[in-house]
Amino acid sequence: MARIIEAPLLNGEGCAPRGSAVGAFGKLNAAAARGLVYDDAVKAETDALYERVRHVVPEFEWPAFAPLIAAINRLKREKNAVILAHNYMTAEIFHCVGDFRGDSLQLAREAAKTDAAVIVQAGVHFMAETSKILAPEKTVLIPDLRAGCSLAASITGADVRLIKQRYPGVPVVTYVNTSAEVKAESDVTCTSSNAVQVVEWAAKEWGVDRVILIPDEYLARNVATMTSVKIIAWKGRCEVHERFSAEDIAELRAAHPGVVILAHPECPQDVLAAADYAGSTAALAAYVQEKSPRKVVLLTECSMSDNVAASAPATDFVKPCNLCPHMKRISLEAIHDALVTMEHAVEVEESVRLRAKQAIDRMLALPKTERPLDFEVGRREVAVEII
Ligand code: 13P
Ligand code: SF4
């Protein structure tokens, strides 16, 4: 079984320790408050699911999780609902109630093709909006309206309109981590699984040698090292990934000789320069599956390691914990309540939806690559223009 080694750094808030009696009682109370108990029927229904999270959920905690998990899975059947679970969900959500799991791009593709009547987005608000844009006839629920994103909050539709006035004729490529209103002002969206492909397509399609890539400054800088297209960027940051530094990597290598360091491209360039591999959350998971490193660090949101570890028994995960406070708003209780009350339904005004959909559709229409983009590591910095 994979081992999870908690690293005593880095700059984040730190995780609630697994196996703490306080945490377990909290969940038990949450289940009891909803009239849910751990009985023989729940045990029989959930025993097989426990095997998927045994590596991170201690046995004594399972009776606290299992009643909520059984109830959610029953509610899904009753309401013809599916749960789209992002890679940053906690392991009990990701492995025990998620129907489709993956990175932003994979979840958007699932939203566009599911037959279910209801989509519960176990992720953040911009992901739920993307689902609603692609599947307007479905009810899309976000279990906690506070599940935002610092990148999405860094830019508005009005900002994009001003940018377009300043750079007429230059295509606007927008990271999916943005509001529907921002997508509606954009020419095409991208994710970290396809950013270089989209940037190069946009430059060719518009017949220009530069594109605007917003709002993540670090993603833009990391893309700039891999293409001859000139990049104009915005100063948005992911509050989770901006905390990692090259010094953290040096400390991790010193403490764990031979460790393989993987980073998400929302990290600063000096982190990618010092890492062994970089890519979207799907690319990081694929790297571990394919290469089975003996010991690995995932420089990204904390729960990723727990989720990837389930199918990587030969790998030990050193886990420096940087939590995304927005992703962590989504709990089993919140998902359960969303399915009972059918709240909070995400709505996107139709004229905004249609324009945002065009930008997303252009991205989805590009040839599907066999695997998500590998970002280059160890590269020098390339100049980008900051708006
Ligand atoms: P991915 O598209 O790699 O899943 O990233 C989404 C995200 O929010 C990363 O912080
Ligand atoms: Fe946004 Fe960063 Fe959280 Fe991803 S990890 S949802 S980019 S704040």
Would you summarize the structure shown here?
The chain has helices spanning 21-33, 40-53, 62-79, 91-96, 104-113, 125-134, 157-166, 180-184, 195-206, 217-224, 246-255, 269-274, 281-291, 303-309, 332-341, 350-365, and strands at residues 4-6, 81-86, 100-102, 118-122, 139-141, 172-175, 188-190, 210-214, 230-233, 260-263, 277-279, 295-299, 316-319, 374-375, 385-386. It has 387 residues and is α/β, with parallel strands linked by helices.
Question: What do these coordinates show?
Answer:
There is one protein chain. This protein is an alpha/beta fold. Among the domains are: 17-148 and 328-341, 3-Layer(aba) Sandwich (Rossmann fold); 152-230 and 349-370, NadA-like (Rossmann fold). It has 16 helices and 15 strands. Helix 1 (21-33) packs parallel to helix 3, helix 2 (40-53) crosses helix 3 (62-79) and helix 5 (104-113) packs parallel to helix 6. The radius of gyration is 21 Å and the shape is globular. The model has no long low-confidence stretch (mean pLDDT 93). Residues 87, 103-104, 177, 191-192, 238, 266, 280-281 line the site of 1,3-dihydroxyacetonephosphate. The site of 1,3-dihydroxyacetonephosphate has 10 residues, from loops.
